[in-house]
Design a protein that fits this description.
Helices cover 0% and strands 38% of the residues. By secondary structure, it is mostly beta strands. It is globular.
Length: 127
């Protein structure tokens, strides 16, 4: 089934670019986050995130999302935080509802606490 999210998709360079679900020891696949925005306007923070608590049947936007376009999101179970990253930086959130930018580096993908970006850039996010 296809559902609509509040992440912008009004131009061909905008949409959802990353999905993450809250997989912990309890393995909760109901709570997830979708990130995106418009990669041509990577510092624009409007309509760049959506949250689900019902396995993706419905999606809502938090009041304060990440600080720009984001292409990846992961839940770091050890730190009990979400990390979202993109070409204009990275943000962290304990609950997905309030985000705080903590890095300005450009990254495109996340795998656990590892990030990869342009020009061979690799980083690890630590507590």
């Amino acid at each position: 089934a296809t559902v609509q999210s509040p992440v912008r998709h009004d131009v061909e360079t905008a949409g959802i670019f990353g999905l993450g679900f809250l997989y912990t020891k309890r393995r909760d696949a109901r709570h997830g986050i979708a990130v995106g925005g418009d990669y041509r306007k990577d510092t624009e923070a409007a309509a760049n995130i959506a949250l689900t608590a019902d396995g993706g049947r419905t999606w809502t936007a938090p009041k304060q999302g990440p600080a720009g376009f984001r292409s990846a999101v992961e839940y770091l179970a050890g730190a009990k935080v979400w990390v979202a990253t993109g070409t204009s930086g990275s943000d962290v959130s304990a609950d997905g509802l309030v985000w705080r930018k903590f890095d300005d580096g450009a990254y495109n993908a996340l795998s656990g606490s590892w990030a990869a970006g342009p020009k061979g850039r690799i980083a690890v996010f630590r507590k």
